[in-house]
Amino acid sequence: MSISMHAASVPVFTQMLGSLSALLRKAESHAEQRKLDADALLQARLFPDMFPLRRQVQIACDFARGVSARLAGVEVPSSPDTEKTFAELQALIDKTLGFIGGLSPAQFDQSEAREIVTRPGTPKERRFNGQAYLLSYGLPQFFFHVTTAYALLRHNGLELGKGDYMGKY
Predict the structure, then answer these.
(1) Residue 1's pLDDT is what?
(2) What is the pLDDT of residue 38?
(3) E strand or H helix at 128
(4) Which residues contact 134 (CB under 8 A, 6 or more apart)?
(5) Do 119 and 94 form a contact (C-beta atoms < 8 A)?
(6) What is the pLDDT of residue 169?
(7) Which DSSP string corresponds to 23-81?
(8) Chain CA centroid to CA 27, Å
(9) Domain 10-166 has CATH 2.10.109.10
(10) In the chain, which residues have pLDDT < 50?
């Protein structure tokens, strides 16, 4: 039995975005309880050349929307990625969940063979079939940014464990 492209993508994004949302709620509470500047957490990095927490969340949402849209054969919704607060990041996650949740499994039919072109017309242009795009590029990128967000929060003193990372499944 094979797994559908929808089943291999949307439920995974949904679970992990739910986890990311819960992590951000814990981070906001952590900042309030310890009277920390929330922006200090939102701008946290492990090293100066990496993106801060807020950007990790934005990119995770960008990948969830972009991968799902491309596989479903619909236009990728644009997002200016201007969120600066916990509330704005939660709204972005909610918007992303609403978008991917509105895609039907039928829209993903035969997307494993659909040609996906990323960054068209640039030196970084890449071409994939849908299955390779999801499994070798989209999911690893998405998980990288969710994992990095988790690591940034853990590094900054939040008491988190694997269950927090995994979320509800």
Answers:
(1) 67
(2) 96
(3) strand 126-129
(4) 5, 8, 9, 67, 71, 112
(5) no
(6) 83
(7) HHHHHHHHHHHTT--HHHHHT--SSTTSPPHHHHHHHHHHHHHHHHHHHHTSPPPP---
(8) 17
(9) no
(10) none
